[in-house]
Amino acid sequence: MKKLPKAKSAPKSNPKEPKLVTSKHPIVLAYDLGGTKVAVGVVDSTGKILAFHREAAFIKQGKKATLEQLIRLGKEMIAKYPKISAVGIASAGPLDPVKGELLDPTNFSGPDGHWGKVPLAAILAKGLKKKVILENDAAAAILAEVWKGLKSNTKNAMILTLGTGLGTAMVANGELVRGGRFQHTEGGHIIIKAGDESAPCGCGQIGCAEAYLSGRSFAYRGRKRLGNEIIDAPQIAARAREGDAAAIALFDEYAEMLSIALHNFVVLFYPEVVVFTGSFAAAHDLFLKKAEKKLAKLLERRNLVMNLQPKLVVSKLENQAGLLGGAYVALRAIGKL
Question: How confident is the model over 165-179, as pLDDT tens digits?
């Protein structure tokens, strides 16, 4: 009797293809767009990040290339998570969160020069077929900190994002602070040392807080001071930790400028806590305690009648504050928070 062929076993799943992380809660797509990188992720209404991808932003290749990159990344996530109900994008500014427009972002320029006005929310909505909410990256980050990073009863908190630029945002009495015409408060462009030709800022001014306190500006000043045209901020930090006097002096100057900026922010906004995030915050051990002491000295008289000294902390969200903030504004816009 002829033997029957053995039944073929079911094909084994590819171990290189991880199973999608799912959630029973509403999910949204979130972006965090800066001057050098873009992160995209899928986040549920509990703040859980289900999927995440980060890559270099195509800013230097121009506006068109960057917009195509954002749409490509979004489509890839939506293909995996078709139940995405809305999109939130946290972007460097200036921008108009009501109209969903970028307003010639300070650190966005490519082969065709600066970007000018860009209806980013409308462009992404058309490309992704989803509702899109645009928010300033620092504003999104402080909303994320209050949502998931800080104590639940925090009502007065400020954030400083130390990256390509210096982002600032404030929640006062439980509400996000905006300026007139719904504009974001650009604390990074408060001039703290007028006429300082050694501190050019991307906004076109000199002596702005950003020109001293962003990671990129610190590296620029370090290269000039050290006579080394290729050294970067992490390398300067490594030198300082090894006891290099010139590198330590750079961080002393940084702490001084930070204390001045913080003093200005304190008397304007009265935060109880200031959160530091962004790639340069990794060097906080070299400047934060020094800045705290200098700030206490600047606030010495005011503190006699009311303690205005804010607690200075490094974010616990591991550089995900912008992404979570993008998710937060999208979830809030569709009534899921």
Answer: 999 999 999 999 999
